[in-house]
Write a structure and sequence with these properties.
Elements (H helix, E strand, L loop, with lengths): L2 H7 L9 H22 L10 H7 L1 H13 L27 H5 L7 H16 L1 H12 L2 H16 L2 E3 L2 E3 L8 H13 L3 H6 L11 H6 L3 H9 L23 H6 L3 H4 L4 H17 L10 H4 L2 H5 L1 H7 L4
Antiparallel strand pairs: 1-2
Length: 316
């Protein structure tokens, strides 16, 4: 301790305290408890959801999602920043706080082309039936294309799953049925992610945005429902079975249980701003007038240091 520190602390009652030893003891105790709990209970290890798994176990759900991208009717088509230029769909608060608009389109995605037409064009190179169906579809008038899509969409709602084979009722689906079966076969072969994420500019792929976007919406909601991790079920704070999940996110997940936030289209931004505000308040609490007097008005510190105050309070 320096001479200045000794002079400053002269007369203050002190006792020996080995912080390193206490830290090592606590670390050892916590490590032992964690290892014991891990050995006794473990934690469920749910594998990564892939296009192959969805196409194999839930083929109709996969076809419905593929058709949504193919028809250009998915919400991703007009999602807004950072994927599309539809600024009117960006989340906002108070009409002017909209970080997505400020940042703009940094990862452009044309859902219909990138998630449906482009994979189909690649399949067509190897599959003559898909190539023929794609040529018929692209050369048909737009109104005819829409009639085929509507007919196939209605048929999917009445289709049956015969041990993994989707059986459609009789109808005029044109080439759409062949094209969607091509997407289904691509996913079942385990090639969907590679087709969506591959880049001709790099020898390797680090950006998995498109394959992740393909599985969003109804597919990820179906998985989350199976794992009890929907937003109204406190999301990631849950885990499979009776195990706790990311419990330290409870304050964030709690906001999504409030009716005014949960039903808002701007829920993510509202929750994020509330958490950011709370974080800043905690950081600057010592210099915020009024709030920095809370410890004096609610003297919890006297309870913590009650032994010291009982022995030395009032002494010069």
């Amino acid at each position: 301790m320096s001479t200045r520190s000794e002079a400053y602390l002269r007369g203050v009652p002190m006792k020996r305290y080995d912080m390193i030893r206490e830290g090592l003891i606590v670390l050892g105790a916590v490590t032992a408890v964690v290892v014991l709990l891990a050995v006794s209970f473990g934690t469920p290890d749910y594998p990564t959801v892939t296009g192959k798994e969805v196409a194999t176990k839930q083929p109709m759900l996969f076809l419905q999602r593929s058709l949504a991208y193919f028809s250009g009717q998915s919400g991703l088509q007009t999602y807004g920043p950072p994927y599309t230029k539809h600024d009117q769909n960006a989340q906002e608060v108070f009409g002017f706080i909209s970080p997505a608009r400020w940042i703009g389109v940094v990862n452009p995605v044309d859902a219909r082309h990138d998630l449906a037409m482009d994979p189909l064009e690649r399949i067509a190179v190897l599959d003559p039936e898909v190539a023929k169906a794609l040529a018929i579809y692209t050369h048909a008038p737009p109104d005819q294309q829409q009639r085929w899509i509507k007919s196939y969409s209605a048929a999917l709602r009445r289709a049956t799953d015969d041990n993994g084979r989707v059986v459609l009722p009789q109808g005029d689906y044109g080439p759409v049925a062949t094209l969607m079966n091509g997407m289904l076969s691509l996913a079942r072969a385990g090639l969907l992610e590679g087709t969506l994420d591959s880049s001709s500019r790099l020898p390797y792929d680090l950006n998995n945005t498109k394959s992740l976007l393909f599985l969003e919406g109804p597919i990820e909601n179906n998985v989350a429902r199976h794992l009890n991790e929907l937003g109204n079920q406190w999301g990631m704070t849950n885990e499979m079975g009776p195990y706790p999940g990311a419990w330290w996110l409870w304050s964030y997940a709690f906001l999504y249980q409030l009716p005014g936030i949960a039903s808002s289209p701007n829920a993510d931004l509202i929750a994020g701003l509330i958490m950011a505000t709370a974080f800043l308040v905690l950081i600057f609490l010592p210099v915020i007038p009024g709030l920095n007097r809370i410890p004096y008005r609610i003297p919890v510190y006297r309870l913590i240091w009650r032994d010291w105050y009982r022995r030395f309070e009032g002494q010069p």
